[in-house]
Every structure is written in structure tokens, then in C-alpha cells.
Amino acid sequence: MGSTQPTFTNPATTSLLELVEARRTHYALKAESPIADEAIEHLVRTAVLHVPSSFNTQTSRVVLLLKEEHQKVWDIALAALEGLVVAGAVPRETFEAQTKPKLQAFRAAYGTVLFFVDYEALAGIKEKFAIYADKFDPFALESNAMSQYLVWTALQAEGLGANLQHYSPLIDAQIQQQWDLPASWKLDAQLVFGTPTAAPGEKTFAPIEDRFKVFGK
């Protein structure tokens, strides 16, 4: 974005920023992976373990679903949206022309990472630091978002494309029932991934001058 390239003491910094720039939203995905399932699992597990959280509360919960298990997420979403059509909340034409094809495209990918927040795990810290009690839920979401971004960027670095979805609360109950997850896990986002079959859309930026300022330089 800048006109000059700074010099960093650690070459890995340049590599990290290149990965940040390379991360994109990919919707055209197929059910293949250039890396082994074990590598994907290690990548996600490492993110869960090492992403920071406020007061080290470690409230993020993550479920990795591959292949047929991944497809179940989007079968649940399709059924939920079809239910809205039957109830008259979503027009049939909109569902058939837009929503259904989009959900089927997610289903055609290789995997989904489900990101949850366990807000009940915050009870103790809220009591201990009552003056900040109303801040801990937003802090937990911030930590969860860091996990989402790290996993997304790492998957991209390994040749996988991904897109982030938010279908809560429509699918929450069925997701918890399908995989017997604790009721305290509240679904926040779904990261769909697979091998890209098309280039991502053009990436545009608002003027950086309106979003970033430096003082004391």
C-alpha cells in the first residue's frame, strides 16, 4: 500500500505481511485439499492454542469438519432456509435463485471450521473484576475473531481458499445436536474452505488516509 518498502530485522515479518496481503475471500471452491487432513488439523489446533484472549480466559471453542461431516453443516443450513420459505419469511424465488445456489456452493467445498464462544467460562472473571463485567463478552468475541483470521490466513498460505459465513442463530440448535456440543458453546462464524476453482473478486480499499494516522514520527 505504501510507496516505499521498509527494511525489517526479521525476514519473517515480510513473509507475514505478504500472507496478510494474499488472504482473500474465495467462493468458488471444490472438495479437494493440497495438504493432508493432519496438516489442516495441526493448523487449526495451533491457532486455538496460541491466539491470545483477555485475562487469558481462553473462551474460543473450535470444531473442524471435513468431507462428509462438513457437508452436514450446509444440509442443516439448507433445511433451515427452506423452513423459512415454507413459513413465508423468505420468498421462494429468492431462495431458489440466490440462497440455495450459495449454500450448495458452500457444501461443495472441502471443509468448514466452526467458531464458538463459551461465555459461561467468563463467570469467574466477571465476578472477580466486576467493574469490567460488561466488557468481557466483547473481549471474547475479539479473541474469537483473531482465531478466525489466523486460520483463514494460514489456510490461504497452504493453497486453500476460504470464505467466512454467519448463519446463526438459524443453524445453532441443529449444529449442537448433530455433534453433541455443550450448550454453553455459542456459534459465532463458519469458515468454509477448499481448493479454489476461480480467482477471487477484485479487492478494493477505502482511502488509507481516512483510516490510519501516525503521530510522533
UniProtKB/TrEMBL annotation:
Primary localisation category: cytoplasm
Location(s) in or outside the cell: Cytoplasm; Nucleus
Cellular component terms (Gene Ontology): cytoplasm; nucleus
GO molecular-function terms, A-Z: oxidoreductase activity
Key word Acetylation present: no
Pfam families registered for this protein in UniProt: Nitroreductase (PF00881)
UniProt keyword terms in alphabetical order: Cytoplasm, Nucleus, Oxidoreductase
GO terms for biological process, alphabetical: cellular response to oxidative stress
Domain annotation Nitroreductase: ranges: 21-194
Keyword Nucleus tagged: yes
Tree of life domain: Eukaryota
InterPro entries: Frm2/Hbn1, Nitroreductase, Nitroreductase-like
Family: Belongs to the nitroreductase family.
Protein name, as recorded: Nitroreductase
Species per Swiss-Prot/TrEMBL record: Aspergillus ellipticus CBS 707.79
